[in-house]
Amino acid sequence: METELFVRYGPALLYGFGITILCWLAGSIGGVIVGFILACLNRWGPHALSWVIYVYVEIIRGTPFMIQLFILYYGGPYIGLVLSPVQAGITSFVVYGSPYFAEIFRSGFNAIPKGQIEAARCVGMPETRILWRIILPQMLVPITAPLTNFFIILTKETAILSVVTVPELLFQTQTMAAETFTFVEPFLALSLFYWLMVLVTGWIGAKVEQRVTRHLKRA
Amino acid sequence: MSKEQMTTTADDAIITVRNLSKYFDDFEALRDITLDVKRSEVLCLIGPSGSGKSTLLRCLNFLEQYDGGEVHLDGELIGWQDISHNPRKPLSGEALRKQRQHIGMVFQHFHLWPHMSALDNVAEALTSVKKLSKKKAKEAAMAALTKVHLEDKAENYPANLSGGQQQRVAIARAIAMEPQVMLFDEPTSALDPELVGEVLSVMKDLAAEGMTMVVVTHEMGFAAHVADRVAFLDSGRLVTCVPPEEMFGREPDDARVRSFLQTYRERNVV
Amino acid sequence: MSKEQMTTTADDAIITVRNLSKYFDDFEALRDITLDVKRSEVLCLIGPSGSGKSTLLRCLNFLEQYDGGEVHLDGELIGWQDISHNPRKPLSGEALRKQRQHIGMVFQHFHLWPHMSALDNVAEALTSVKKLSKKKAKEAAMAALTKVHLEDKAENYPANLSGGQQQRVAIARAIAMEPQVMLFDEPTSALDPELVGEVLSVMKDLAAEGMTMVVVTHEMGFAAHVADRVAFLDSGRLVTCVPPEEMFGREPDDARVRSFLQTYRERNVV
Amino acid sequence: QADLLSDIKAKGEIVAATEMHYAPFDLLKDGEYVGIDRDLFDEIAKDLGVKAKYLDLPWNSILPGLEAGKFDFVVAPVTITAERMKRYNFTLPIGNATVALAKKAGDTSISKPEDISGKVVGTQKGTAQLEQLKAFSESLATPAEIREYTNVDEALADMAAGRISGVANSLPLMGYAAVQRPGLFELVMPPFGDPKFFGWVATGDENSKSLIEAINASLLKMHEDGRLKAINEKWLGSNPDLPTTMPDVK
Amino acid sequence: MNFSFDTIWHNLPYLLAAARWTILISVSGMAISLVWGTALCATRLSANPFLRGAAVLYISFFRGVPLLVQLLLFYYALPYVGLDLPAVQAAILATGLCSAAYTAEILRGALQSIPSGQTEAAYALGIPSFSLWRRILVPQAVRIGMPSLVNELILLVKVSSLASVVGIGELTRISQNITGETYRPLEIYITAAVIYFAINWVLSISGRLIEKKLQIG
Ligand SMILES: Nc1ncnc2c1ncn2[C@@H]1O[C@H](COP(=O)(O)OP(=O)(O)OP(=O)(O)O)[C@@H](O)[C@H]1O
Ligand SMILES: Nc1ncnc2c1ncn2[C@@H]1O[C@H](COP(=O)(O)OP(=O)(O)OP(=O)(O)O)[C@@H](O)[C@H]1O
Ligand SMILES: [Mg+2]
Ligand SMILES: [Mg+2]
User: Fold this and answer.
1) Structural domain boundaries, residue C22
2) Is the entire prediction scored with pTM above 0.80?
3) Site to substitute for ligand 2 among C110, C153, C155, C161, most atoms within 8 A of C-beta
4) What is the predicted ipTM?
5) Fewer CB in 10 Å around end: N or C, chain D?
């Protein structure tokens, strides 16, 4: 183990970590929002729209992120869509994540007993209010874990952004590996950074879960 | 049909049900029900298990999309956009919501929201529908809970309440909204005799304030005491609908009703 | 406490409850309950809502881990490994399972499995616990459903059953297992008078076959007809436990019991 | 003391890894591994009297795999540099690794390497060619902006998409790209920077020494009997001038 | 841009051949993921604090370390402790074991929304815990969690591309190689995407069918 490597590449690695976090946060939060909108439109929107959403979900979910990103970044200019690497990275991240999130939300909707929604309708609650107050808090019970899962998966999908020269973490560690012919150290650094992100994500997930399952704990 | 009948409806009928029918796939749950509920009346629905009492109640606020016939509340067609059109198209969510605001319901299985405390269960609709301030809503909710003697359990989640306590929260949730019409589906099934008495007196107060009520019940004593009229359902059909004295006071005409009431009579001579 | 008491227990007691107490956080749900249930006896538990009836029942098969005292079934301590040890350690899942096989239970909220048809709900434990073949289990399940008049709804899922039908499935599920002891938590709350009569006769048959039953109920008529003894609970305490004639036949001694029964009496003079 | 060569001979098989993604040295054509490396190494295996088995691995895992002993030898072209020689045993040069530039076909603004001055040029990250390009760019009046890609394909794709004006990589590679997509890419002559060479590598320890010697001997034989020339002409259309001794590296 | 269908047509057989590896690895991985994931979930919820802790540790390790690193560990590090797995087995094991951690969490989430009364009913009948899981908990958890499970399985199909680091010529790898020869990345990648889509669509449709079948009522 050559520790002075970390001193030499530390700044670059940290910079890459920053870019990774930026893309991850922007992409996954955007993905959650788009996914949620898709799931809602699918449930409450017009019937024709749910077909469009179905096709979108299946196609985007069914194809690899690397290829989507490649097509967006290198194919985009042919139709006049010229994006910078980080722009392309975040955009494709939002697009890529949204169908997964939409499916997770769909499963959440399905988990709420029908009777509770009927009860809410009977007191005349508006549908949006039902969504926020009755459905959402309860659907977080079954979906917090899958959501956490997918946030964690996305931390690692950021590595693919290196394909379009986004200077993220993997990009930096690859430089480190190539320039110094060490393998253990760069991968160790890489794993450590991802592990940190996963740890924090997992911790937040657990906290959210604790909160949303309060009512299930019997005294 | 019906158009003419409707116009002949007595003025004081708030709910009119005409030739209502409802299928679950092939199973005929309700057949050709015609029934009026007058303003401020308390109508009790009795009948054997599976006879369609809950289904009828659920059709009244369109929780079940009925297949044939019509239900009017205050002259307004419930649920469907237009009856002449075939197939029928249901109203939009918003329009349905408007209609349902006037109809309260207590479910057979309570359907409390498990993630909210008893108080929040009651207060929720007060803020979101009646637009009361948080504080006002909580006060009103507390008042409703007090009516059903649950003031000391206001902070419990439904999972931490006994069966009867849950049922009382459900009742409080519905009456707090002060609807024009209340639909009760076995509101006392989980209650002890004392509380049945209490709920009965709450309902009597409501009736005195002019609320219309349709109550499904298995407690004949309850029906006898609280109802203006009692309707007997069997296998999805309305067998009879008469004042309680006629239903319980003398030997009923209908053989089905007679045998239904008999076991009850025998057992309750304690 | 208890050790000596236990040995003095009458030989024919199948369930012995000694100084049972149970807290939910700070709330004392049961206090110092001591009670015997004799073999083949039918014991009814009555009392106001929230008095601890369900909790007591749930302690008997250790669905609630009681905090103090002990429950024995046929001389065997229920739930805990060893009472002298502090804090108490519950039995392993397997040992608990063995104990619970002898104790059937019908829940206040039924707790049917929503993804199984009525028939499968009843047949499930017959295959997985009694190790009957699929075919045998279905036959036995069908027989149990027939007892509660549900043969034509065997293929329905719980969501497609009426409240009373669900309750009957829950009863069928428990009695099909032919346990030594049955715990019923308001088994007739969703049933109409006729069916109450039917269930009553099913229970009488079971009693005749020697089954011991503990029944929580709000129907005094039911208690009067079916019970060997009636226990009255109030605020977690056992107020009295006497034969039904004593409870209902004459004016009860205890003021609490008296006021409890009064409303009921008044209302049921139909 | 283990000896790799005798182990290989005893097995009768040498397992060699490469990334089949570096035309014209290594490529996958119609599902089969072909290229200069393949042709050369087949001959060498024949000389050694063993069968050659080829593995395709991404570049990232080739050197770790070699060190973990998952295979015997690397037949991917590795640019011979001083730093790498400290860690691995290289064979004699098997290809020219000098940097050359490719531009988009028809781009008249570039006619010689110096014309990249002030333009954006892409190359593969972590390569010796990148170092060369950097040095070259610094020597220009206005240096070029250099963009690093994980793979040369992506650099080429980005040039086709119009984001960059040139792609720099080893001469054979750029030449091959220009031949494959004549309407799209064009080679800019001459190559620039220090002359560099590709070699193959084995682990840096003692027991691979004898294998390297045997392969070197075989390579020299191919220099003499014209097989090397024939193979290079087949793939490149020309014969690079490869040294027969280990080149001097700084 | 001149899009070359010839290139696609010419290379399709090789891409399809490579897809066989993708399918082999991902389908075997799925089997491990589902079976082991369910067991892991049960362990995670067990009353025994040691078992529970072990499951938590397992999940945090396999979710925390990038799969690439896990795979490299399985393939390159295990030989040092005397376990030399062939590349395909290493890839299947690594993807399956890693995915199981996610599957376990999905199931755990779904299980939490099954009302506890149903478990109590099973307890009261003396139903053994294996039957409780197999007949009552898992079918309902699968119904609720199915969309998330399909998500996970689809991700598993895609992540099988990492098997290339241990020398397996699966779909992504081969399409990259072909790109290196033809210099036509868009054509080849789009074709690969279509193949991935076809595989994943089968998964997704099966998922929806199962979901429908398990729908209550
Ligand atoms: N999990 C819990 N946490 C806190 N309090 C509880 C919990 N379960 C029950 N309680 C309280 O314990 C008391 C006894 O409850 P229990 O369910 O035994 O009543 P019960 O006699 O069955 O009433 P009912 O006739 O209404 O079903 C009630 O006041 C209830 O609020
Ligand atoms: N969703 C459904 N699908 C199929 N059949 C149904 C459905 N809901 C109810 N049923 C059937 O319709 C009939 C009437 O049900 P309903 O719930 O109205 O009965 P009920 O009179 O309220 O009975 P109870 O007194 O037992 O609650 C029953 O036989 C029931 O099995
Ligand atoms: Mg009903
Ligand atoms: Mg109770």
Assistant:
1) 13-74+181-269
2) yes
3) C161
4) 0.90
5) N
